Amino acid sequence: MNKILCLITLLALTLAASAQDGKATLQFSPLPYSYDALEPHIDARTMQVHYEKHHRGYFQNLIKAMQELPGGDQLSLEQVLGQLKGKSAALRNNAGGHFNHDFFWQSMSPQGGGEPEGLLGEKIRQSFGSWAEFQRQFKQTALSRFGSGWAWLCLGPDGGLFLCSTANQDNPLMDLAEQPGIPLLGLDVWEHAYYLKYQNLRGDYIDAFWHVVHWPTVQTRLQQALANRK
What we know:
single chain; three-stranded antiparallel beta sheet
């Protein structure tokens, strides 16, 4: 547990240090691609509603909820996630919602898909046995989340990878996470993420996700997290 908390603290400090103008500020970043860029795997209408309505709503409500944190305007989002114990549900839900969606958008690309190579591919084989077994376990993790939530691939305190799911807008970086870790990849399994195209077929949505995952981004996250452990 202490190792994970140190990893989370180091990640937060690294990201905070890179904030613009030397200050940590919350931003609603533009999508890194057009709404239709992930077609046919994720449709344009879903992307537009998901980003403009759901994600923007979390961001706007987070700005209001941040008022309960002294000096909140000087904190990075990762630092906020690390001090949610005893805070309001509004802060927890909206901080998680904003972080998770930013993380999700950046995890995908029109040039995504395929199998991860290099260190990430090696870590996946070490932790899960094979690429196919990793896919199977990730899908089961995402399918088994009852109701709304997320499925995650994380770096653990031992340097290995593990899978977990979180309810609602929780994530493994939160100080109240049941399975704390450094997230490398996250999949939104709220119905609003897939229902317009896939209706109740969450499994089909999970299968489609593999075609748009941008593994170089996931690899970079892994490398940064491992570097911060040293």
